[in-house]
Design a protein that fits this description.
253 residues, alpha/beta, seven-stranded parallel sheet, 15% strand, globular
Length: 253
């Protein structure tokens, strides 16, 4: 009997920002489907490690601050040393700064664009270079946003970075699809994470958001796992350059 097209047994996934929230849920979901996990983040990911171990997969932690491109080569070499190669790259690490556009600071612009777009591109370049040299294909999953489609308010650099990430996703798909590397993105809607805490504690804003979501609730990080497994697996072998909303129906409203 053929194995499931969603089976990730024998694969290694490099997941950035895997210590909490969406990255943690994605890492655990990929592990449950059979993948070993190399996590990248600024701090230890003990909770993620335990959850990955609980489903019987290997877990390697690489501590690095992705605010700059400086650690990229070290991160990739550590992943290769630990696992022999990277089959799946999940660019989840990100940051956000909030202010009115008229007051938005250059430092806040640079900080967000650096993590959310520049480092993502150059980490993908470094991993993609190894994937191409190995000749066995691979999967890249970028974590975009509803603001890859919409403008938002008070998040100028976040909107710019996530709109840019959608474009980079399509660019890389165009260049790498014929070489066996799938590049796609997931666009989470409004999820219960640290990044949305300011919105959720604002009673009026939270109510406005919930009224717009057909599903009637904020997303839970585990809601992303299925989309990540799909885009990481053979089930999506003919899917290239897609930005897949996982938003409770927000964009359909």
């Amino acid at each position: 009997m053929a194995s499931s097209p969603f089976d990730l047994s024998g694969k290694t996934a490099l997941v950035t920002g895997a210590n909490t929230g969406l990255g943690q849920a994605i890492a655990v979901g990929l592990a449950a489907a059979g993948a070993d996990i190399v996590a990248v983040g600024r701090s230890a990911a003990d909770e993620t490690r335990a959850a990955v171990a609980a489903v019987g997969r290997r877990f390697t932690m690489v501590e690095a601050d992705l605010a700059t491109t400086e650690p990229i080569d070290r991160v990739v070499e550590a992943a290769i040393a630990a696992a022999g190669g990277v089959d799946i790259l999940v660019n989840n690490a990100g940051t956000i700064r909030r202010a009115e556009a008229i007051d938005f600071a250059e430092a806040d612009w640079d900080a967000v664009m650096g993590v959310n777009l520049k480092t993502v591109f150059f980490l993908t370049q470094a991993v993609g270079r190894r994937m191409l040299a190995r000749g066995q294909g691979g999967k890249v999953i970028n974590v975009a946003s509803l603001l890859s489609f919409q403008g938002g308010i008070r998040v100028a650099s976040y909107t710019a970075s996530k709109s840019g990430l959608a474009g980079v996703t399509r660019l890389l798909a165009n260049e790498w699809a014929a070489k066996g590397i799938n590049v796609n993105a997931i666009a989470p809607g409004y999820f219960e994470t640290n990044n949305t805490e300011a919105l959720r504690v604002d009673a009026d804003r939270s109510r406005q958001i919930l009224e717009r979501i057909p599903a009637g609730r904020w997303g839970r990080p585990t809601d992303l796992a299925g989309a990540a497994v799909f885009l990481a697996s053979a089930a999506s072998n003919y899917v290239h350059g897609v930005v897949l909303p996982v938003d409770g129906g927000w964009l359909a409203r």
